[in-house]
Structures are given as C-alpha cells and as structure tokens.
Amino acid sequence: MLAQIDVEFREQILNDYQGVSECQVCDKPDYLVPIREVAFSFFQESGFPTLKNEDWKYTPVKRYLNEPFEVDQEDTNTIAPADAPYFGKQLPGYKIVMINGRFDPEQSELPDSSQCTIAPIIDVLREPTVKERLSKSRNYGANPFLAMNTALFTKGIYIHIPKNVKIDHPIHLVHYAGGEQKQFNITKNIFVVEEGGEAEIIESYYHSGHAPVSFRNSATEILVEPNATLHHIKLQKAHSNLRMVEHTEVEQKQDSLYNNYTFTLPGMNFVRNNLNLDINGSNIESHMYGLYLTNENQLVDNHTLVNHREPDCESNQLYKGILTDRSRAVFNGKVYVHSIAQKTNAFQQNNNILFSDDAAIYSKPQLEIFADDVKCSHGSTIGQLDDEALFYLRARGLSKADAQSMLVNAFAFDVTEKLVDEEIKAMLNEEIDKVMTGVIS
Amino acid sequence: MLEIKNLHAVIDGNEVLKGLNLKVNAGEIHAIMGPNGSGKSSLASVLAGREEFEVTDGDVTYKGQDLLDMDPEIRARDGVFMAFQYPVEIPGVSNISFLKTAVNEVREHQKLEPLSARDFLKRTREMQELVQFDSALANRSLNEGFSGGEKKRNEIFQMAMLDPTLAILDETDSGLDIDALRIVADGVNKLHSKDKAFIIITHYQRLLDYIVPDFVHVLNDGQIVRSGDKNLALELEEKGYDWLKKEPVTS
Ligand SMILES: Nc1ncnc2c1ncn2[C@@H]1O[C@H](COP(=O)(O)OP(=O)(O)OP(=O)(O)O)[C@@H](O)[C@H]1O
Ligand SMILES: [Mg+2]
C-alpha cells in the first residue's frame, strides 16, 4: 500500500525504519521492540489513509504527501531563529523549543527541575509512565499516521508534572519546522500530570516559508491523574508550507480536569487533529473547545472521540468554524457512553458559518449511548450570517463590513471566551478581528 | 422632511404597499394605525432600508435626497431611526460597545469628533436615566434574553443615544406595562423638537394620550385610507376599522 506515495519518500520511510530498528547506539527497551514491529507492519500493510477509510473520507491526504520527503533527517543547520515571529510569541511563560521535533534545550527557557521533568522522549523510554503510555493499544486502523509514528519516532518531548505540583507559569512548546530539503518529521510527546498536579501547556508552530514544505506527524500521549488539571492550548497558525497531522490521546483519572482548546487560523494548508479522550474514572470533567477560521485552499479536519467509561463524568465539546474562500473543514465527533457510565453529561456542538460559495464543511456529530440515566445532546449547524441581525446593526449606522465582523467575532468569541488565560484570549480575538476585516472589506 | 409618493413595494411576490402617500414636516408627530397585516411594518422597513422589500414604484425624498437610493447605514447616519417591532437578539455583541460604534458612526457622518470614553459614558448615563433603562441590561449582549418590554425600552434607549431627526417607532408600545409606556412617551416628548419628526405606529389610542400626534393616518391594504387629527384615533377606538375598509378615501 505504500506504493501510493513518491518513490523516494517510500525509500526514506523504509530506511528510517531500518535505522530505528538496527540502531546500535539507541536505547531499545524490550517492551518497545514488538510495539514498533506491530505498528510498522500495520503501516506497511495499510499505507497512508485513503478516502476509503471511514475516518479519512473527506480528507485526501495523498496530495499533501506526494513529495520526495526526507524522513527525520537530522538537520543540524536549522536553528530556531530567535526572532522567528511565531503566533503566540508574546505570551509569557516557560519555553520549550522543538526543531523538527528535536528538543533544543539551549534555546529553551525551562522551569526549575524541582518543578517538573522535561526530557527528550528517547532518553526516558524506560520510565514506567512512558512505558505505560506507549504500551496502550491504539486503533491503527482509524489512524495509520499513528502506526507510522509509533514505529518510527525518535524525537519528541516528555513533560512530567509530579504529585501536587502546580506549575507557576504556562509551558509553551514551540514547534519549528523546515530545513533545506522537504521534511517529514515524526514526533512523539508524552505529558503526565500526576495526582493533584496542575499545568497549562501551550503549543505554537513555525515555518519560515522560505524553506520547502514540511509535514509534521505528531502524536501526543497524555495522562491526567486523579485530581489533576491540565489546560492544553493549541495555537495552530503557521506558514502554508507546513502540513500536519496531530494525534492526541488523553486518559483521565477520577476527579481530574482536562481542557483542550484547538485554534486553527489561516496559514497551514493542511491540518488534521485527532483528539481522543478516555474518561477512565468517576467525577471527571473534560472540555474540548475548537475554533477553525480557514481561508484560501486550507483543509482543516478535527476528529474527536470521547469514551465515557465511568459514571458521573461530564464532557463538553464546542467546535465552531468560519470558512472563507475555497477552504474546507471536517468535523467528526464521536461520543460513546458505556453502559456502566450512568449520570454522564455529554454535550457536543458544532456550528459553522460559510463565507463563500466555494467553501465546504463536512460535519458529523455522533452520539452512542448505552447507559440509560444520562444527559447528552449533540448538534450541528451550517449557515450564513443572520440577515436580520445584520440589518439591525446596519439600521443603527454600522457599515456592512463592521456589522459582519461584529457578528463573526461574536460567533467566534463564544469559543475564545472559554479560555481562562486572558492573554491568549486577547491575542486570539485580535487575530480573528484582523482576519475577518480582511475577508469582509 | 419626508415625502412619500405613490409608494409600491413587494416582498416575496406579495405587493404590501400599494401606492402610499405621506408627507411629514419637521416638528410633526404622525401616528399610523391600521389592522394587522395592513403594511405598517412594511412601510417602516422600506423607510429603514430593509433589502428584502423591493420598491416597484414611487419615490421617497428625505431632506431633499432620494432616500431609497441610500444604504440602510447611510440613512441611519443621516438621522433616520426605526425602533423595531421585533428587535433581534444578537448574542455575543455587547449592547454598549455596539452602541458606541453606532453613535460614533453617526457623529462622523455629521463631521463631529468621536465621543471620548468619558463623554460616551456620561451620555449613556443621562439617556439611561431619561428612559429608565437598567444599566445592567445595557452591558449585556444585545437584547439577549431580554423580556419583550426590555427590548422595547432598549430601542428607545438607542434612539435617545442616537438622537435621530426622523424616528419611526413600530409598535414600541406593545408589550410595555403602563409605567413603561409613560416613560417611553416622556422620552419621546423630551427628544421631540421643532427640527425633528416622529412616525408612531401603534394599535392603541392609549399611547396617543401621552404623545399627542399632529396627524393620525389609517393604513389599510397597503394604502393610507384616512387621515385626520388626534380625534380620528378616538373614533377608531370606538368603531374599529371596518367602516374604513369599505370606502378608501385618500387625504
Ligand atoms: N418577510 C415577509 N415575507 C412575506 N410576506 C411578508 C413578509 N413580511 C411581511 N409580509 C406580509 O406583508 C403584509 C404586511 O405585513 P406588515 O408586517 O407590514 O403588517 P403590519 O401592518 O405591520 O401588521 P401588524 O399590525 O400585525 O404588525 C402581511 O400580509 C405580511 O404577511
Ligand atoms: Mg407590524
């Protein structure tokens, strides 16, 4: 099945696997060897997903992959330029610099090591928490990129927040991409927040645009232990030369809180987010907020999956989309409420505004409930701006453009207002305003 | 100030205004009454510039200009204000920040400096007091979750803030309790001056006890079928509309 892609790229993938499995100097813990083997043989068999794969039905990845990519070539020349204007640069906090997936401690500003552990993933493969995360069985059928990721990863970051530690500032991961050649980068991250711990992790992305296209295949495994809190914010805005698939698996234990905010703004020409939540304890709260504002020929795909396995939990999803030009977006959300998960509250909402006849959205909210005492709802809307509201504002003297932008902002602010971090909120609102002023006027 | 001649308008293939004539001079208050569906709101909408209505014949001049040729926002900036019969709820748009934009658009059009934050606040306070509009409401999302009466008061509050030359109130009195009715009427009377005109659409003579109109018109089936002074309203209160529907008379 790998025959579908560029010959050189295929060679690269095979060589890379050989490199990883035969590497003499690398740490190859016993548990990991078969995991990698299974993942690779699956990937070799399935190849990258095609439109025949139910989970990739509206997402033609082939056109983003068909390049002579180099796979995870160590590119020592690429250093993060200190003045690279990535989106979110002004935000205060600790900074973790990742260059094509490789952790660069030199350029990072890390919290005191008494607060938490931050290490390249490849150095901590024998940590019990790492082993536990990597040993979880995953659905490769729905996620061939994840199979590839597990088989081949050598880069990525491990962030471990010990028991009862509340990190005093946000931890900001900045993913720099690009090199001399077309790059395909594989990153595996693991975040663990131990019992009673609390952290805010922000992710930003950068591609200079001068470098050739890069493809980022990233998978992040997250564990939120009892009574712990993790705020996880993705600020997905970078040059169109960056394409990416970001797979996120979250397991939550009792009394924990996980908030995911995924903002995708004009720029990257392909973004696929998988966000899978495993609600594995009672009294858990999870929020998933997404906003995609797309332009030109962007393709932004958000797939979410929430598994309610225990009673008395609440999950809440709100994804909103504003699509302009020829851009396309996909929202596919699945919520399973297992029969034991009584008193579950599960909400899922996806609302979209199309700003152009050429834009398209495929929205599919799904709810499967096997318990009887639950409160669940889901819904999806696709529409234009409300003409009545538009007229009302104009009838008070606002120009059409101002009225439209006010309505679009109101639509989007519904999501941004959920952010607890006021600085990020202000930054995003300003950006949305800027984008929409361009679209409307 | 406003002259409407032989106005015909169509919506969704239905002709709703069928040759309407009306002249409003500065300083005048006109009341328009008429049965449900007779075209009162349609007239207000056409004057405010709602694009769904297509004007098929006739013309409207406002302060010597062709009103129909102006975009709704230009009309608003030039002093035309319509209080909506059914104000829309706009979640996420703050009442007060929207109003600030609106006030400054109008001022810019009139070649005035934008109001400073302080002056805007001052004016907001004055007008809130004038129409007794709760400041907690002013700070919420535009009309979101407002009661029927609160929405109407918000229309009057906005009118007071924008200080229009020609205000068209479409059933602003419906849904108001008796105290609110008096407050709205007081507001209108205070804002009224010799350079300003009001068109007040209502079903109830009651409002006209507080706001005394110079003219009362009856609209039926897209036309004005009778005009008179305030006594016409009393007559309608007594007799209903049936006697007018039979024999259209234009003034
Ligand atoms: N958007 C629309 N589409 C189709 N028909 C409409 C629309 N708006 C108004 N009409 C029709 O136009 C006619 C006049 O309606 P209009 O709202 O102007 O009446 P009105 O005099 O204001 O009535 P009311 O006293 O009930 O408010 C009615 O027959 C109405 O059904
Ligand atoms: Mg009406």
UniProtKB/TrEMBL annotation, chain A:
<dbReference type="InterPro" id="IPR045595">
    <property type="entry name" value="SufBD_N"/>
</dbReference>
<dbReference type="Pfam" id="PF01458">
    <property type="entry name" value="SUFBD_core"/>
</dbReference>
<dbReference type="Pfam" id="PF19295">
    <property type="entry name" value="SufBD_N"/>
</dbReference>
<dbReference type="InterPro" id="IPR011542">
    <property type="entry name" value="SUF_FeS_clus_asmbl_SufD"/>
</dbReference>
<dbReference type="InterPro" id="IPR037284">
    <property type="entry name" value="SUF_FeS_clus_asmbl_SufBD_sf"/>
</dbReference>
<dbReference type="GO" id="GO:0016226">
    <property type="term" value="P:iron-sulfur cluster assembly"/>
</dbReference>
<feature type="domain" description="SUF system FeS cluster assembly SufBD N-terminal">
    <location>
        <begin position="27"/>
        <end position="172"/>
    </location>
</feature>
<dbReference type="InterPro" id="IPR055346">
    <property type="entry name" value="Fe-S_cluster_assembly_SufBD"/>
</dbReference>
<comment type="similarity">
    <text>Belongs to the iron-sulfur cluster assembly SufBD family.</text>
</comment>
<protein>
    <submittedName>
        <fullName>Fe-S cluster assembly protein SufD</fullName>
    </submittedName>
</protein>
<dbReference type="InterPro" id="IPR000825">
    <property type="entry name" value="SUF_FeS_clus_asmbl_SufBD_core"/>
</dbReference>
<feature type="domain" description="SUF system FeS cluster assembly SufBD core">
    <location>
        <begin position="181"/>
        <end position="411"/>
    </location>
</feature>
From TrEMBL, chain B:
<dbReference type="InterPro" id="IPR003439">
    <property type="entry name" value="ABC_transporter-like_ATP-bd"/>
</dbReference>
<dbReference type="GO" id="GO:0016887">
    <property type="term" value="F:ATP hydrolysis activity"/>
</dbReference>
<protein>
    <submittedName>
        <fullName>Fe-S cluster assembly ATPase SufC</fullName>
    </submittedName>
</protein>
<comment type="similarity">
    <text>Belongs to the ABC transporter superfamily. Ycf16 family.</text>
</comment>
<dbReference type="InterPro" id="IPR003593">
    <property type="entry name" value="AAA+_ATPase"/>
</dbReference>
<dbReference type="InterPro" id="IPR010230">
    <property type="entry name" value="FeS-cluster_ATPase_SufC"/>
</dbReference>
<feature type="domain" description="ABC transporter">
    <location>
        <begin position="2"/>
        <end position="246"/>
    </location>
</feature>
<keyword id="KW-0547">Nucleotide-binding</keyword>
<dbReference type="GO" id="GO:0005524">
    <property type="term" value="F:ATP binding"/>
</dbReference>
<keyword id="KW-0067">ATP-binding</keyword>
<dbReference type="Pfam" id="PF00005">
    <property type="entry name" value="ABC_tran"/>
</dbReference>
<dbReference type="InterPro" id="IPR027417">
    <property type="entry name" value="P-loop_NTPase"/>
</dbReference>
